[in-house]
Amino acid sequence: MKRANRQTSTPSKQTATRLMRRVLVVSHNAAQRRIFAIQLQRAHYEVFEAGSVEEALQLCQRCEPDIVLSDWIMPGQTGLDLCRAFRASERSNYGYFVLLTSAREAEDISRGLEAGADDFLTEPVTHGELLARLAAGERILRVEEELRSSNAQLRKALDRLRETQAAIDRDLREARKLQQGLVKERSGRFGSIQLSLLLRPAGHIGGDLVGFFPISEDRVGIYALDVSGHGVTAALLTAQLSVHLSGSADQNVALRAAQTGTDAVSPAALAHFFNNMMLEEMATDTYYTMIYAELNHVTGRLRMVQAGHPHPVLQRADGSVRPLGRGGMPIGVFEKPVFDEIELVMEPGDRLLICSDGITEATNPAGRILGDDGVEAILRTNAFLGGHVFLESMAWSVSEYCRGERQDDMSAVLVEYLAPAEMVQLTGR
């Protein structure tokens, strides 16, 4: 035999594993206990002996055996009593229980299984059968240990995921505060025109954006955007768009032309600028809908572009309500989009409501969307309310319609041309 093929005295992996197994032999017959103990020790098991159930239970508490080999019939308490107590005890791992019986009747096996036994040996027991049964028990114990180890690793992984999720939630809560800060003013007054804004994400952060900025002494720009999707991607794009529509003249795209002494960019031209920017500068599948309006707060003349956004709704002073626009195409999808351009003149007592689809497409439990009819009903029902009070009432109505299961961001702009009586009331406040 070559030296490389000689067997060394180093225990095999199986032997090393068996050395760790503890077997408790329980029998009132001392001679039988010794025979089993000798056979098991030769097979590299660590063996403990007990002559009664009471002694066996005490040993179970002290040494926590992996395998219990117990007589069924014993004076006083039986092997079934020991099995039940063994199963009821607290253990760090699973214990394999084998009952020794003189006859394997079906009724006895049923009673043993109900008590919690894993296997049975019929006396007289041969050496080979004993070791084979215990080897089968070891396989089950190894599977149980592997499962327990896997579960422990899963618990650790879940704990790490929870910690990561908690950190993400904290970041998203802070991001929500920052995103809410993009809307620096929630209301504005320009002559007879009162502007009120609503921005309410469905989650921590969202893809809606509303706002306004002064263009000149007699004009104000008003915008409402809804970026496709939710979460971080949508929020990042709204943040970038807010820079392009901020009140800072050197950053606001609509005001750049005004800096050169010419007129501000028209609503339709602004929509085309954003569309080109999305297609040429941003490698993303994201798109958004938009309404941008230029309102002369002295004359009430309003020019507006609709780019896939829900229809604005105009309520005249006499209470009549009608949706505006034909829809138009969203921004960032087509190279040559067609946007809808709208012009109208607002009169004292009129108001214009611009909503995101988080309002118009709010769905009740039956699957029916709120739609333009629902928005019109809200306007008529709340005709006596104005400003933020109206917007909060509308938001409550939408949430009630959805039974609190709102899935999309909710945003709106309310433009009110105050009648003389309303202006006097506001001044009095």
Automatic annotation (TrEMBL):
Residues with 4-aspartylphosphate modification: D71
GO molecular function terms noted in the UniProt entry: protein serine/threonine phosphatase activity
InterPro entries: Bact_Sigma-Reg, CheY-like_superfamily, PPM-type-like_dom_sf, PPM-type_phosphatase-like_dom, Sig_transdc_resp-reg_receiver
Classification of source organism: Bacteria, Pseudomonadati, Pseudomonadota, Alphaproteobacteria, Rhodobacterales
Domain Response regulatory: 22-138
Coiled-coil regions, chain positions: 140-178
Keyword check for Phosphoprotein: yes
Protein name according to UniProt: PP2C family protein-serine/threonine phosphatase
Regions crossing the membrane: none
Entry-linked Pfam families: Response_reg, SpoIIE
Gene3D superfamilies tied to this protein: 3.40.50.2300, PPM-type phosphatase domain (3.60.40.10)
UniProt KW Hydrolase keyword: yes
Enzyme nomenclature, EC number: 3.1.3.16
Keywords carried by this UniProt record: Coiled coil, Hydrolase, Phosphoprotein
